[in-house]
Design goal:
Elements lengths: L7 E5 L3 H12 L3 E5 L3 H11 L2 E2 L3 H6 L6 E4 L5 H10 L8 E4 L5 H13 L3 E8 L4 H4 L2 E5 L2 H14 L7 E5 L3 H29 L7 H8 L8 H12 L15 H12 L4 H13 L4 H15 L8
Parallel strand pairs: 1-2, 1-4, 2-3, 4-5, 5-6, 7-8
Antiparallel strand pairs: 6-7
Helix pairs in contact: 8-11, 8-12, 9-10, 11-12
């Protein structure tokens, strides 16, 4: 395990999550060395927080004491693979590589085999907390062998809401990203249910319901109270009409992976699957089907068809 005198970690990828995780680690007493493809991002963060900015992956690796610890916060797919290709030849046996970004768990298992071939420990860490993680801490779902987790424990304890809460060694490599995948699938379903419920309340216009007050009341004592409800209440306090918000909801990929896993396991997951499909519908992916449905009604019943303006 890395001694307290030498606690230092490399953070690769400074998007919203990566940058805030670097901030939290630095505040927690760890010296963070950061690298980002756009080096001005690293430089600005160094000026703000005292992290050390590396202008290349090689410089980052050289700035870390052995056994090194590197945390990747990169988009799944090509970005992560290209950085792994570059990093693995630079690392030494006993170093630890943690993939903390959203990733498909089977990809993590394959990446771990590549790392283990050069005696580098690999961990997959599902991270939840969003923009609130800097202040509140991050929920961490970790996969890897016990030795790797022990090596990373000082960093996990700082990033989590507490040293003894909000993080879990889920099991072997792949389990962390698998648990995070299902977590996000559940999140899709919870968000969809809240959104539909408030849409129904808003549609009952004769009651003139104050949705902000309803949401605020539900936060206390109700069985649907949750952090998502807290965020919904905050949103509705600011704006109940949402006239300036486009009805388009992106999907990160985790919901799709969860639905695919459910199908492969033959486990019914209709709520998660339908919530994912509703996000696709919001992105215009059901437009052709809706148009065809309108034409079917016109053909069999003579129902009017609305034209695009």
């Amino acid at each position: 395990m890395i001694s307290k005198q030498k606690q230092r970690i490399g953070m690769v990828g400074l998007g919203r999550m990566g940058a805030n995780m670097a901030r939290r680690l630095q505040r927690g007493g760890v010296q963070v060395v950061v690298y980002n493809r756009h080096t001005e991002t690293s430089t600005e963060l160094a000026k703000e927080t005292g992290v050390l900015a590396a202008d290349s992956l090689n410089a980052l690796v050289k700035a870390l004491p052995t056994p090194r610890a590197l945390w990747l916060m990169l988009p799944a797919g090509d970005a992560t693979e290209s950085h792994l290709n570059e990093l693995l030849p630079m690392l030494s046996p006993g170093d630890i590589l943690i993939n903390g970004a959203n990733a498909f768990y089977e990809d993590s298992i394959a990446q771990a085999k590549r790392a283990e071939a050069v005696q580098v420990h690999y961990m997959d860490a599902g991270v939840s907390g969003g923009v609130w993680g800097l202040q509140e801490g991050y929920a961490l779902m970790v996969g890897g062998d016990a030795a790797a987790v022990a090596q990373a424990k000082p960093f996990l304890e700082i990033l989590a809401p507490g040293a003894d809460k909000g993080w879990l060694h889920c099991g072997p490599v792949g389990s962390g990203h698998f648990v995070k995948m299902v977590h996000n699938g559940i999140e899709y379903g919870m968000m969809q249910a809240l959104a539909e419920g408030f849409a129904i309340l808003q549609g009952k216009t004769e009651f003139a319901l104050d949705l902000a007050k309803v949401a605020e009341m539900w936060r206390y004592g109700s069985v649907v109270r949750s952090w998502l409800l807290d965020l919904t209440a905050d949103t509705l306090k600011k704006d109940q009409v949402l006239a300036d918000i486009a009805p388009v909801v992106a999907d990160s990929g985790e919901g799709l992976w969860t639905a695919q896993a459910a199908l492969a396991l033959k486990i019914p997951a209709p709520v998660i699957t339908l919530a994912l499909q509703m996000r696709w519908a919001s992105q215009g992916r059901d437009d052709y089907a809706a148009k065809l449905l309108a034409m079917m009604r016109n053909e069999f019943g003579g129902h009017a068809v609305q034209k695009e303006i």
